[in-house]
Amino acid sequence: MKRLLLLLPAASYRNEDFLAAAKRLEVEVIAVANYCHQLAPAWGMSPIQALPFDQPVAALKQLLPALGRKPDAVLAVDDSGLDLAALLCEYFHLPGNAPEAVRQTRDKLAFRNLLRRGSLLCPEFAHLDGDAAGAGLAPPLAFPLVVKARRLSASRGVIRADTREDYVQALRWVRAIQAKADRDAAELGLIVERFIPGSEHALEGLLQEGKLRVLALFDKPDPLDGPYFEETLYLTPSRLAQQQQEAIARTVQQACTLAGLETGPIHAEMRVNARGVWLLEVAARSIGGLCGRTLRHALGMSLEELILRQALQLPLPQVRHEAASGVMMIPIPRHGIFHGVRGLDNARAVAGISDIQISASPGQLIAPPPAGASYLGFIFAHGDSADAVEASLRQALLQLAFEIQPDIALSEART
User: Fold this and answer.
1) Is the whole model's pTM more than 0.70, yes or no?
2) Domain membership of residue 62 as a residue range
3) Are 82 and 131 members of one domain?
4) Model confidence over 243-254: pLDDT tens digits?
């Protein structure tokens, strides 16, 4: 039986889907999590299940004595485990991406420098160190601009500024968000870049010996112009012209080659305008949340099973986009405490809707971007065209009413 070391962050939506895929493939799973090592024993968890993912070198030293024999593959479910997974693959001489390649794509500043060195389209940008990220300095670029935390994902810590007042407020808020979420916040500083106009898209793919295999190209039909950038709709196949789709794939391939990424899932985000393809990020992992479930029909299996198959060197399926599909990441309308949802039956009865998953739990504190990094849930649809799928998703969302108890005012969280 093949043995898989799976890094499962506590807050990931996808843990169950990866574990279910491993069970279907009859793979022995060594589950490693980033739970608190002090609380883990009280929860009946062994020390191997409580590693500091954000300290990969220390985590590696803690894990090796407890691991036993060498695994056949190592996979990180989400961003938080990518650095540790790369170190483990290097240590065990397993197929994987080099630690430096992963670091270059996880860090927004390093990635921007990579794009510039490779002569790919890249907005003007500037790095603000920990001291310079204060509120009293003039902006280093012309407006409109975007202030970003360096290693956060899911639009967390990303704010557009159109005026000096916006900029000062964005600096304070993003710095506070990063300080709470990243232990290295003080030394990382922030990144500021010119806002890129255009339509936004996402590419899902696999790298095999450095060559990109496109699994899907998603359109994001809702405008993402700020000041915050909460994603909602993903639709595939893309409605872009074939020439533009090919340009996106070429650009993602170039970026992966520049970074030194060689194998495994790839999720890339980009904007497209008259000048071409502007990469926002390339991540050495698959799409976040439960959005990968939109590809089940095209793949004939779950995306997680496909990823495990590649890691374990098992046969891979052909991709057949015979119908359109999409997902609505249900946005969080305001900061507060989630209590429940009404209208689920009516939403599920909308033509084209295949599933609705409410992922927020009653009593959970929720917040929209830029402070939050989660969704209320996910709505899935299939249909004959992307237009039909989009209409189904929007209609289903209109049927839902969420009960959210007000909590601390969002302005208080900025200070």
Assistant:
1) yes
2) 3-103
3) no
4) 999 999 999 999
